[in-house]
Amino acid sequence: MKIGYAVSLLTGIAIGSGVGYIVTKKLLEDKYQQIANNEIASVKARYARQKPLIVNVSKEDIEKEEATLKEVEEVIQENNYNGIIQNEVPTNIPDDVEIISPEEFINPDYDDYEKVSYILFEDGVLSTDGLTEIDPEYAGLDEVVSSIGMYEADAIHARIPSYHMDVEICTDPLDRTFEQYQMDKGIIAPPIE
């Protein structure tokens, strides 16, 4: 009789647990489905209240913009900026880039040289200000970048006599990509997931 009682008790517990699980699952699914539906409805309502952007542009404004665009295109052609826009290597890359030591970079004999500092990001992008993305190949600095570690583990220095310029390239200390750096600085917004 004790065995029959134990079996009945265990069967009752198992059936009760199963029914409790099913009922709880159904109640929670309904609750969270309602929450999701309410959120979707509120977003739809918010966007429905927004008025479409209507811009009044006169024919005169359009003609001015077209004239400005033509002037910009002429400047691009005159200065051979087209190669950069089309992702071609420009032909005016200096051929006199030389790697120098950090001591030579701060040498007072070259104080009249312009000093330019770049940050090299994990994805290979150079930038002077965190806003402008510069491909090292376009700047003629691809060989310089590959020499990081020659004097210092995280930096390299170069001199470009034809441009009267000294260049310092330091790696980003946090090993970020250019996009991560811009997100960290609030320059661009992180992607919405």
Question: How would you describe this structure to a colleague?
Answer:
The protein has 193 residues and is α+β, with helices and mostly antiparallel strands. It has 3 domains: 1-50; 55-88; 98-184, no CATH class. The protein is built from 7 helices and 5 strands. The chain has a 5-stranded mixed β-sheet with strand order 1-4-5-2-3. β4 (155-160) and β5 (165-171) form a beta hairpin. The longest helix has 48 residues, at 2-49. The radius of gyration is 32 Å and the shape is elongated.
Which terms would index this structure?
alpha+beta, single chain, 3 domains, 5-stranded mixed β-sheet, elongated
Number of beta-strand segments: 5
Structural category is: alpha+beta
Residue share in β-strands: 5-15%
Overall average pLDDT = 82
Radius of gyration, in Å, reads 32 Å
**Oligomeric category:** single chain
What's the tally of helices?
A: 7
Task: Summarize the SSE layout with pairings.
Elements: H1 2-49, H2 59-78, H3 82-85, E1 98-100, H4 102-105, E2 114-120, E3 126-127, H5 136-139, H6 142-145, E4 155-160, E5 165-171, H7 178-184
Parallel strand pairs: 2-5
Antiparallel strand pairs: 1-4, 2-3, 4-5
